[in-house]
Amino acid sequence: MTIFYILMIFIVIASLIAVETTDLLSAVICIGAMGFGVSLIFLFLRAPDIAITQIVVEVLGLIILIRATISRDLTFISGDKEFFGTVVSVAIIFVIFLAGLRVFETLPEFGTAIFTEAPNAASQTYISQGLDKTGAANLVTSVILDYRAYDTLGEATVLFTSIIGATVLLRRKTKNTPETLQPVSES
User: Fold this and answer.
1) Residue (of 145, 125, 159) closest to 50 by Cα position
2) How far is CA 118 from CA 3, 46, 59, 114, 126, in A?
3) What are the CA-CA distances from residue 11 to residues 1, 15, 41, 76 (Å)?
4) 105-138: pLDDT as tens digits
5) Are 73 and 24 within 8 A, CB to CB?
6) Single pTM value for the model
7) Domain spans in the chain, listed from the N-terminal domain onward
8) 150: Cβ–Cβ under 8 A, 6 or more apart, which residues?
């Protein structure tokens, strides 16, 4: 549990830096670090589906935010700030790396069914009562569409919205600009 508290402290520090910094790009990077810290917490809490969703949304959100801030924030790094920024960046990356190592140590070995390690897991209910409660012949479908329907809908909505947002912001200008449109002649 100590790694959980270390990640929480890291997230709080990253959020404070994001709020207090005057450099927009540094704020965006801190928000990204905060999001990746949250995804590590989800992985540590054994919720890999939510961790994957968090990473996808975080990456797309960072693309959007960096695209929006890079044109507005022109920063020039002097010699003193460059060394301090490099040291802080390396320290943050090192902490994230150590937290990731610690999370992967706590996960069961690949191929081990989680319900064998947690007898009161929800998967036991899905397996023992899934056919009777849902009537679905496919157990995976019953879990996704009956037991976790709102969760699946929410994840799909978040992913779809973030992909559409990134596509809209990153697309090239349309070919049909007002200058290139031909006037319609009336006959």
Assistant:
1) 159
2) 21, 12, 32, 6, 14
3) 16, 6, 10, 27
4) 777 676 777 666 676 777 777 777 777 888 777 7
5) yes
6) 0.49
7) 1-72+79-107, 113-172
8) none
